[in-house]
Structures are given as C-alpha cells and as structure tokens.
Amino acid sequence: MSLFPVIVIFGLSFPPIFFELLLSLAIFWLVHRLLVPTGIYDLSGTQHCLIRRSIAAFFI
Questions:
Q1: Where are the transmembrane segments (predicted)?
Q2: In a domain, 22, yes or no
C-alpha cells in the first residue's frame, strides 16, 4: 500500500500533480483565448518558435 496521496476516479488512481497539470493547461488555454484577440499574446513568427523551444527544453 502506498503512502502517497492519490485521487481515485472510476477505479483509476491519479497523483495530485496530474490534476494540477490539467488545471494549469485549462488556465493557459483560457488566458490564451482571452489575450489573442487583443494582440497582446500572439503565437506567430519567432515568438511561437521561442515558446516551442522553451517547452521542449523543459522536458528534455
């Protein structure tokens, strides 16, 4: 038996970090949808490449 906290949904166990990542992703997409029409947050050109590279570097 594990001493680490887990959340059980439909018989499947998930660590709390899983839900934190889902919540972070949901907040990111909400902010993204709100800021793109204003032009403040635009994922075109070099900015998009920099974001993609920084994400890739984080996971490598």
A1: 6-31
A2: yes
